[in-house]
């Protein structure tokens, strides 16, 4: 059964053709923090062929990433909601913003740039999680 999410003003809609939301990862890099105005970005790496985008999100080509890899950041031009990110390093996947969907967000199983998290942020990943120190 497809899972659908919308931006705040509902002009952008994502439909994921999966029975359940994919695993999530949390990124603490400064660009993800700034793009979402949050202490971290929680995303779901999802095959592009499983995602339908309705509406016309704006694209910000982020060329100042910590890793040096260009990251397109798609967002709603009306309400400003972050929608997804995409990178040429992983052309077959989108990184969907987990809070875009009105479903319980799966606990992250991967942490990126954990050394850049705010000291008041705590997380427990369990035994199957991986932590990337990029």
TrEMBL record:
SUPFAM superfamilies: Mss4-like. Transmembrane segments: none annotated. InterPro entries: CENP-V/GFA, Mss4-like_sf. This is CENP-V/GFA domain-containing protein. Keywords: Lyase, Metal-binding, Zinc. The keyword Lyase applies. Belongs to the Gfa family. The lineage of its organism: Eukaryota, Fungi, Dikarya, Basidiomycota, Agaricomycotina. GO terms for molecular function: carbon-sulfur lyase activity; metal ion binding. The keyword NAD does not apply. Pfam families: GFA. Residues 3-124 form the CENP-V/GFA domain.
